[in-house]
Amino acid sequence: MLSYELKKTNSKRMSIKVIRGSLDTIALLLFLSPDTYITSSLIRERFREIKPGTLRKKLETLVRQEVVEKLKKTGDRAGDDRTEYKLTAKGEKIRAGLVAYALRILKDENRVD
Question: What stretch of H or E contains 69?
Answer without folding.
Answer: strand 68-72
